[in-house]
Amino acid sequence: MDLFLQQVFNGIMFGSTYAIVALGLTLVMGILNIPNFAHGHLYMLGGYLLFFFASTIGLGYWLGMIVSVAAMGVVGVIMERIVYRPLNDQPHINAFIAAVGSLLFLESFALVVWGSQGLRIPNPHPQIIEIMGITMSIQRLLVIFGAIALILGLHLFMKKTILGITIEAVAQNREGAMLTGINVNRVSSMTFAISAGTAAVAASLLTPIFMLSPSMGAILGMKAFVIVILGGMGSIPGAIFGGFLLGLIEALGGGYISAAYKDVFAFGALILILSIKPTGLFGQKEV
Amino acid sequence: MFTKPIHTKLLYLAILAAALLLPWYVPDAYIFQIVTMSVLYAIAASGMNLILGFTGQVTLAHGAFFGMGAYGVAIMTKAGIVFWLALPVSALIAAFIGLLIGLPTLRTRGAYFAIVTLCFGVIVWIVSGNWIELTGGHNGIFGIPRPSPIPVPFFGQIEFFTQTGMYYLALAVLLLVLFALYRLVYSVFGLTFMAVRNNEPLADSVGINTYATKLVSFVAGCFIAGLAGGMYAAMMGAVSPSAAGYMLTFNFLIFVILGGMATLPGPVVGAFAIPVLMEFMQFLDDYRMLIFGALLIMVIIYFPMGLVGGLRRLNQKVAAWRQQKFPESDHASR
């Protein structure tokens, strides 16, 4: 029973990270219809920027986190402007390939700057508490509550602010939004900034527990795709629900069936679901 | 497109002669090894180009099918099956798994297909690293025998124990694959591939079975990847999970895009030029992928047809300019 609860706790922790990363991805996919294959690598870069600001420069964990999230927002804007905007009018296939290009670029950028050795950000809250036989560190709890706070904040932003509503308008109908005078390019930039920023928040919360490595973004980015497709492209509740679900499946599958194959479950589930329903679980008909 | 001008034919002949004479002017064993690998990569990239360039389906599992061919030959030849049987059988296995995967996933479109194939590629990579009984886990399989000699009446036998023998084998397969692709792509059936790429609903409405077309293209591409992978195993004498990894897929993607998507020479040019360039850029070390990532983005934005496409456009411009300047000499030049 203790093992079960411990696995559930870990599953919720990973799930909350997956949920935030998938949220950022689903926003971009809903708006631009572009699979940003480099999204996981934005998460990776966010982790490294936290290391840079918090440890190398010495701003400390919390200030470093704020600066790295802001910096990632800028990275998102630059990425949209340089990589994706010129491809707006070209066939979609070109944007996928550009996404793979930016993925390779970001990964080797981290490799060149920080090396292939794993780096560690000192854990700011290493204290451990025990509740009902589950061991949990403060940092792990922080991941869960940080994620919940971010999700709530993002929800309020999307529903209550003008900018949030314009993002939704563009996602629903790009041409229609243009006709009502929304600057679609500016909205795209903003969405990329938010998307990259949320990836950086997820990285900032989780990386003090694990090691940083240039390749850590690849698998996470793909899992975010699995979640987004499960939950429906552009659907925010779908991304959150899918994230927690995947976290639990993995923790329990990894704990009880096979740790080496835990990633296979997630990707296998995706292939299975798309085989049965080619537009995803909640996906709308392709236009 | 069907009849090439004389100078293009001469260019192809010159390249063919250069390829056939290669062992004589590349004495350095290391460079020769790279060139031989390039031939294999050119085969695999040509297969990817059939799916990606001509049919417009972004497959990101090509490395996995290359790996299936490699592991197939490795396991079968270690079990005592002769290479000449193991190679076609492993390519057929790759094609069959391609069929099994293609059947459900080709119903998806665009981004979904790219993601689902990427996921499949990663699954194959993980399995090849963890299924220790079959694949030897992360260490892979060592000591794969070279192909057995082919006896030729009145002549002796063709041996493959030297690197040169393997080079000619790879080159022969590359030429065979290119010829098959040439006949396929420029046939009426091949035109349906491009119809599907350019406008799938329209292709559907003029009576093309788009699903079957995509499936044929995908399975053929996987077969070619398996063929290249099988020869890779025999040539290297060892396979490891990196021969089935998704980085390999991305390398093929770079070859196809930088060389020229949807052109037959494009992937071949890419597969030869880029590894050789990388060798010359050895001093740049980790910066190489940084440069190729940025190049991939720039090429897809500004020259979506890659190097070969760019050259063709230049060629057309020169031809148009000449026609304008010397309108009467146009027929003479052909």
In short:
Chain A has 287 residues and is mainly α.
Classification by helices and strands of chain A: mainly alpha
Largest interface: A-B, 50 and 42 residues
Low-confidence stretches of chain B: none
Number of strands of chain B: 2
Q: How much is the radius of gyration of chain B in Å?
A: 21 Å
CATH fold naming of the largest domain in chain B? ABC transporter involved in vitamin B12 uptake, BtuC
Task: Describe the 3D structure.
The complex is a heterodimer of chains A (about 290) and B (about 325). With about 290 residues, chain A is mainly α. Chain A has one domain (about 15-215). Chain A is about 75% helix and about 5% strand. Chain A has helices spanning about 1-30, 40-55, 60-85, 90-115, 140-160, 160-170, 175-180, 185-205, 215-230, 235-255, 260-275, and strands at about 130, 135. In chain A, strands 1-2 form a two-stranded antiparallel ribbon. The longest helix of chain A is centred in the first third of the chain and has 31 residues, at about 1-30. The termini of chain A are far apart. The relative contact order of chain A is 0.20. The model of chain A has no long low-confidence stretch (mean pLDDT about 85). Chain B is mainly α and about 325 residues long. Chain B folds into 2 domains: about 30-300, ABC transporter involved in vitamin B12 uptake, BtuC; about 310-334. Helices cover about 75% and strands about 0% of the residues of chain B. Chain B has helices spanning about 5-20, 20-25, 30-55, 60-80, 85-105, 110-130, 130-135, 165-185, 190-200, 200-205, 210-235, 245-260, 265-280, 285-300, 305-325; strands at about 150, 155-160. In chain B, strands 1-2 form a two-stranded antiparallel ribbon. In chain B, helix 4 (about 60-80) packs parallel to helix 6 (about 110-130) and helix 5 packs antiparallel against helix 11 (about 210-235). The radius of gyration of chain B is 21 Å and the shape is globular. The two termini of chain B are about 15 Å apart. The model of chain B has no long low-confidence stretch (mean pLDDT about 85). Chains A and B meet through helix 4, helix 9 and helix 11 of A and helix 5, helix 6, helix 12 and helix 14 of B.
